[in-house]
């Protein structure tokens, strides 16, 4: 039986979150950016559940469920946008989609 | 059944949905669903009544309550509170509604919106029953508004004619005016009763003196505003006669037997509030009795000058509702409830009878009727029986209930309202004699050939006629069951509803007054005992007649009178002041203004303000051209800014806490 500490979970989540941030900022492919966002959301989920479990509070799990549901909706909208960008410009390179330049 | 009385409102509600969904495809266009549902509801009500009567005395109200939702610690629930009063109302409402459903299959035959009509009838019945069983004021308010909406829909059933839709809007808005008071009253009493909407709790606290007298008075007066709107009490009675624009079965069900008595029912339900708040025990005069008394007299007087048979009955209904409210005001609770009970039968009978007449001659006007006793035997006999019951002739229903009200007024120390009641009885008997004379006596004055109505319309008349004759015996001396069934007790309070035993002297007096009323009217019309043309010669009478024809000018008062009477003098004075005083002032001001404006323009505007405006524009342009460099259009750069900003905020948060 291995003893688990809260910090282990928090570290895992922090690493995961940083990976997600890196992905969002550095990747060119829009689909990969969306996946990185998922990474960040799941890092947060780990935090929520870990805190919930260690503090005997069910609210953490409830929030995590909400996050999962919202993430599904967010991916739905995001993929639809990516699909439309692809149809219009035949690529999904984020560096090249700068039509909103001021 | 008492525990499950919530089934009774539920059945018509289900029927409403079924009629809307499948009504058009049914062989009888949905009417059979409504009739079947009401039949079941009526039987269930009878079972409930049977069980209630079979309970051990003293009977305790049967309650069940469930929470709908909670919000900020306030529990909002739905529930039932079944006692004698509620059971009585359940039976009356389902019974009249069932008969009206049957009657409507004949009366509305071939109507364009036949299915819709039955759906609305079902919805109305469901809402009315929900109002009856409500155990808290909030649920009562919801049902109260629902019946108002149904009334609006059904008055405007033939909305293609402008008059009808106007009448529907007038009815809705007038009752809504009163409902503002009702809502405020409910909120006031909610706080007064320690944050509880429960009616039983409210009654107990009011009667035990746990709520301050002033608070009860304010709450009761506000509730009474709602009652005045719904139960057509002076001066908010103006909508009820116009509501006769709806189909006649609707008038019988909603505007005679059930919805308009909702106000009376409300007062009877939270009687503790009114009893204590208005110090009814003390006698003399109080607001409830006063409004009721005024309504009795003014509405009865108006019934004399109407030509439309339904309007005669409408004013008669207003007058009888006044009786009930007056009875509650003088502390004769049982008498008011009993009058509500008997009135439902004979007034529904009269309205359905008038529908039968209208069906036959295709006109509402009594000037186009006359001599109908030869053509329509059933309608003739039942209508006369209904009129006699309304006039209070022994031993028909109205006699017993009206007598109890008069008795209550005299025994409880309200001599003024005894006189009002007797006067009202006289007028009631007289105007019903006039109506019967104009409809049935003499020669037929209309067009076409009148004919008796089909059995679906005649049978409800016969059944109701039986009840109009017999219903009063339920509380007659020697039988006297009714008051034992309906009177309610409040825990920890000694019995406060006084029931007075029959008084032969007073009963005989009221009978004499009623017969006198019939005699005077009959003398005027039948025997020509009074000189004809007395109306043409006497100026005072003519004026009175004109005032009545114009309904005391109340409509004009509400719509034009108040505005015009004030408007003209003010307008004239305003014009004079305008020409002589204001013009001079205005000219002087104008010149001064122009001069100062020139100065302002030269120095302040051109130099000061323009400078600021131009400076602001220039500044915006400069800063914009700097800031636009950050708008690269790249999502990832925005994201980086976002992360950076949130990281800074997170650090600040950690650092400062």
Quick summary:
The complex is a heterodimer of chains A (102) and B (657). Chain A is an all-alpha fold and 102 residues long. Chain A has one domain (6-100): Helix Hairpins.
Helices and strands in order:
The complex is a heterodimer of chains A (102) and B (657).
Chain A lengths: L5 H21 L3 H25 L4 H31 L13
Helix pairs in contact in A: 1-2, 2-3
Chain B lengths: L6 H16 L8 H24 L7 E10 L2 E9 L1 H24 L6 H20 L3 H19 L6 H31 L6 H10 L4 H18 L8 H4 L5 H10 L4 H8 L1 H7 L9 H16 L6 H21 L3 H29 L15 H15 L5 H15 L3 H26 L14 H16 L11 H5 L17 H24 L6 H4 L1 H11 L4 H74 L7 H22 L1
Antiparallel strand pairs in B: 1-2
Helix pairs in contact in B: 1-2, 1-4, 2-3, 3-4, 3-10, 3-15, 3-19, 4-5, 5-6, 6-8, 7-12, 8-11, 8-12, 10-15, 11-12, 13-14, 13-18, 14-15, 14-17, 14-18, 15-16, 15-17, 15-19, 16-18, 16-19, 17-18, 17-21, 18-21
How does this structure look, described?
The complex is a heterodimer of chains A (102) and B (657). Chain A is mainly α and 102 residues long. Chain A has one domain (6-100): Helix Hairpins. Helix content of chain A is 75%, strand content 0%. Chain A contains three helices and no strands. Chain A has helices at 6-26, 30-54, 59-89. In chain A, helix 1 packs antiparallel against helix 2 (30-54). The longest helix of chain A has 31 residues, at 59-89. Chain A is elongated. With 657 residues, chain B is mostly helical. Helices cover 71% and strands 3% of the residues of chain B. Chain B contains 25 helices and two strands. Chain B has helices spanning 7-22, 31-54, 84-107, 114-133, 137-155, 162-192, 199-208, 213-230, 239-242, 248-257, 262-269, 271-277, 287-302, 309-329, 333-361, 377-391, 397-411, 415-440, 455-470, 482-486, 504-527, 534-537, 539-549, 554-627, 635-656; strands at 62-71, 74-82. A two-stranded antiparallel ribbon of chain B has the order 1-2. In chain B, helix 16 (377-391) packs parallel to helix 19. The relative contact order of chain B is 0.07.
